[in-house]
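Structure ticket #2291
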Amino acid sequence: MSDRNRKRKFEDGIADLERIGAQLESGDLPLEEALAAYETGIALVRELNQRLADAEARVQQLTRNADGELQLRPFDREDDAES
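Resolution: structure written out below.
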């Protein structure tokens, strides 16, 4: 992943993807530009999906079950607020 992609905010990536989609839907791009925009959009979708997966992994936390064993569970805001 390039430095530019690492520094881009997730929301900015979504906005870029929406812009690319609008360009493609307009039908105004020449074929080569449309293909390039499509390729850029696919790469962006992959990047954003990976960032979502990374974020999901970060919000998991280790907890102990009744037997004292560590287990992974999804992060729950209500549990965090009670701590």
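Closing remark: The first helix runs from residue 3 to 7.
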